[in-house]
């Protein structure tokens, strides 16, 4: 099923950002997150097992699985071939943006400044990841950036925690946040489900 990126962003307040080091736990991690109320899962293409993890997580009922850290059209194609239902990138280039728009896939490109957002608007995009959120100036920076672009909505990602997420989510231009804290390395499925439940109620 093809969603609009707005639907993906509004499914839950937190999108888990997953770095899969152990493919054997991919499916149970996805099951634990979905059980806890976080259905949208971003698997970063930072490990050799990422594409296989996307395939396995796609088997979990209710999961909406996408690929993150997509930096070029070839990676995007590989992610789509693996079954990704949305694409997230750390930044926005013309080749990747044009390929994503042409494919029709829900696309959340990374932005950190006004030029990035204007490039996205030129491609017809209005939903963006703000990355790296904390290092790029935090909430004051995003408030200043969002002001001239009232039509845009954001998913801040990078350095956000369970403690700081509510501060970000309090702003109308923030639809959700991305976070890795909901599935820490070495956590059991029960722990992940509990963290997901807490995140889903933010």
TrEMBL record:
Keyword list, A-Z: Carbohydrate metabolism, Lyase, Schiff base
Pathway annotation from the record: Carbohydrate acid metabolism; 2-dehydro-3-deoxy-D-gluconate degradation; D-glyceraldehyde 3-phosphate and pyruvate from 2-dehydro-3-deoxy-D-gluconate: step 2/2
EC number(s) on file: 4.1.2.14
InterPro entries: Aldlse_KDPG_KHG, Aldolase_TIM, KDPG/KHG_AS_1, KDPG/KHG_AS_2
Any one GO MF annotation of this record: 2-dehydro-3-deoxy-phosphogluconate aldolase activity
Reactions catalysed: 2-dehydro-3-deoxy-6-phospho-D-gluconate = D-glyceraldehyde 3-phosphate + pyruvate
Pfam families listed in its UniProt record: Aldolase
Subunit and interaction comment: Homotrimer.
Family: Belongs to the KHG/KDPG aldolase family.
NCBIfam families documented for this protein: eda
Record-given protein name: 2-dehydro-3-deoxy-phosphogluconate aldolase
Organism of derivation: Aurantiacibacter gangjinensis
Highest classification ranks of the organism: Bacteria, Pseudomonadati, Pseudomonadota, Alphaproteobacteria, Sphingomonadales
């Amino acid at each position: 099923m093809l969603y609009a990126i707005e639907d993906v962003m509004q499914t839950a307040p937190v999108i888990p950002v997953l770095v899969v080091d152990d493919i054997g736990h991919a499916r149970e991690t996805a099951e634990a997150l979905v059980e806890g109320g976080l259905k949208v899962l971003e698997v970063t293409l930072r490990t050799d097992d990422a594409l296989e993890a996307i395939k396995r997580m796609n088997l979990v009922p209710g999961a909406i699985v996408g690929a993150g850290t997509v930096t070029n059209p070839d990676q995007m194609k590989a992610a789509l071939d693996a079954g990704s239902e949305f694409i997230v990138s750390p930044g926005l280039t013309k080749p990747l943006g044009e390929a994503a728009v042409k494919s029709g896939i829900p696309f959340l490109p990374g932005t950190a400044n006004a030029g990035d957002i204007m490039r996205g608007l030129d491609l017809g995009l209005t939903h963006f990841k703000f990355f790296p959120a904390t290092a790029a100036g935090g909430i004051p920076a995003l408030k200043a950036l969002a002001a001239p672009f009232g039509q845009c909505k954001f998913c801040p990602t990078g350095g956000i925690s369970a403690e700081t997420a509510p501060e970000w989510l309090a702003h109308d231009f923030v639809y959700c946040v991305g976070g890795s804290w909901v599935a820490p390395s070495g956590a059991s499925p029960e722990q992940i489900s509990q963290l997901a439940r807490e995140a889903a109620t933010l």
